[in-house]
Fold:
Amino acid sequence: MPVVGKERRVAVAEDRQYDEVLDRETGRTVSLNEFLSDACYGAIVEDKRVALENELVEGRERYVCLDCKKAMVLRSLRTRDKTEDRFYFRHRADDGVCTGRKGLSPAAICARKFDSAKEGAQHKLFKRLVEESLVVDPRFTDTQTEARWKDVDGVRWRQPDVQTGWQGRRVAFEVQLSTTFLHVIAERMSFYRRNAGDLLWLFRDLDPDAFRLAEDDIFYSNNRNAFRVGLDTLARSQQEGRFMLACAWHEPYLEQGVLKERLQREIVGFDELTFDVSSGGVPRAYFYDYDAGLATAIQQQEQDRKAAADACDQALRDDLEKAVLTFSMATDGNGDWQSLRNRFRQRGLSLPEQLYCDGGPFYLLQAAYSAKHGRPVACRLKNLMGLANSLFNLHKNTLWVLSVMLGHFDRGQDLIANGNLEGWKKKRDEYREGWFQGDPAYEPERRHDDLLAFLFPSAADALRRSPGLTERLRRQRVSTRP
Structure:
């Protein structure tokens, strides 16, 4: 996956307790470096960190400790200068048996922080802003605050900050103000998805550069979208009679062929949001489809790259064609030719020090370009019949290229317009018989097939065919004609 814009640098933690985990699905031991691969920060968070936690919530413990076989998760620490995030493995729950650590469990610590935040004035303000925004939009029904949402199993339950009905579905709003353990986020995602509900996380602010790890977990797994309510969005909601939210997202774009991203912000309607599940199985809500935008940008980047490469290739084709058409023994091998040779060498194709030399492609090129232009090139012969006779007499290994290219450019009438047609038919029958019999004298020169295929891509397949097989098929067709 390409690195976009100011994507954070990632590394493995230096002082880490676990360097490897057991992959129960494959039976292999996976190192931290191998697990992270060369993925960028956003991909690690979405496709590895959050996706792994969701698997655990669903009861799928794929990566476990080599020693105690308990589930492992991915965590990270940011350097003091905030320039790098360092990832490491740890147990999902530190019970002290394997790691030696003691004290409160992650769930207990999280519960304290979460409960404290929910009692704070800011948290209450956010819930009120959500409620008042929903009230002005008549499409929402049965809005409740801090009410229980029972699980389909009838036993478990959640208590979202605000819940409401929207177009036949229930929607939960959770205000993310404090640091929250990833498993808590994943549990809420899984709960609402399991109960046919949608979940929308609301942030304190919308500055992705200042997001804490818990906010990154939500932002990156939310298709790189974050949402907020405030007095400004409440005013817009009241003005328009529809629930409005502030949204910030990353938007990929190309700048001089380089893939980058910019932060975009806009107040959007709730009815403009998409709720779905990512390829990694993570429920998400977004206004801007980052995945689609990235795919489009990458596709455009590839199209631009291909167009530039095609233009460069065409310039090479044009320049070699010009060199053959204007060929002169007096200038053969001069500086212009050496420069052209070097450009072809960079393209992976070889040209001789001089165009006219033993074993070089001169006569093959002469045959091909003469067929293309309907007249002899790089010689003083007056017509195609004269060139064909010359090649038959002196360079029989070029006759396949001449034959293919005459057919490709539909030059049959140009060939027979001048010269002894009956005499040429005899020669034609002779080299066809040579192809049919596999006579080495008529075998095509194959050392320059790659060059010819590059110069004439639309005829490449025909040029690479076997003359013998082609002649056998031709005779079969003739014999079956009525």
Observations:
- The radius of gyration is 35 Å.
- Residues 358-480 form one domain.
- The chain has three domains: 9-91, 106-288, 358-480.
